[in-house]
Amino acid sequence: MRRKLVPVVALAMVCLLAASACGSGGSARKRSRSTDRAPAAAPGKKKDPDVDATLSGATPGPTASRRRDVRLSCDDLEDAQVGSRTVRYRGRPEPVTLDDGTWRGRDGTTVTLHRACGVGDLDGDGVADAVGAVALNSGGSGAFFTLVAWRGSGGEPVFRALADLGDRTPPERISVAGRKATVVWLTRSAGRSLAELDVRRTSVYQLSGAKLVEVSHTDQPYAP
Q1: pTM assigned to the model
Q2: Does residue 83 lie within any of the structural domains?
Q3: Fewer Cβ atoms within 10 Å of its own Cβ: the N or the C terminal residue of the chain?
Q4: What is the residue range of the signal peptide feature (predicted)?
Q5: What's the angle, vertex CA 148, arms to CA 147 and CA 154, rounded to 5?
Q6: What is the pLDDT of residues 1-38, one digit of tens each?
Q7: How many domains in the chain?
C-alpha cells in the first residue's frame, strides 16, 4: 500500500509545481505586454496646409493664392461682351462679343478693343471693375470710339454701360478711382475737320444706370 501511495503523491506534487509555473509565467507575460503596449494615438483631423500657413503667417500655397486671385484685369476684356439687348452698342440689336480683342461682322464691320484701359471700383461695391474703349470701323476712314464699362464678377467682365466719344477721337489713358473714370483723349475744337485733332481733353465720368456720364472736363492744346 505504501509503495502505491508514493508514486501518486509524487505525481500530485509535479502537477502542482507545473500549474504554479504556468500561472506565474502567464501573469508575467500579461504584465510585460500591458507595460510594453504604447497608448493609442487620438485620431486627428486632416490638416490643410494653406490654412496652417495662413495661421502661422507663412506664405500660402498656390491653391490658396488662386482662390483669391479673381481681380478683373485689362487682359480679361479681350473676350468681353460689348452692349446688350437693352443697352445697344451703336444701335445694334444684339451685343457683340470680342474674340481675342476683335469682332467681325458679316458686312465687313469690325469692332476692336483699344489699348487704353483702367481698372478700379467704379460702383462702390468693393470689387474691381474695368473701363476700356472699342473702335468701330465699317470699311471707310472713320473709327468711332466708344467707352465701355464692365462690372467685375469673379474675375470676369460683365457689360455695364457705354459712352460715345466720336469719330477718330482716340483715348490715350484711362484710370478708375473713387468711383470715377478719368479719360484722357484727343478731340477737335469747333470748325476743325475730322482729320484735325487739336485738343487733349481730360474727362471725368461716373456711372448713371446704363450710361457713363461725363461730369466734368478740362482741355489743353494738342499738336501731333
Answers
A1: 0.69
A2: yes
A3: N
A4: 1-21
A5: 150
A6: 444 444 444 455 544 444 444 444 444 444 444 444 44
A7: 1
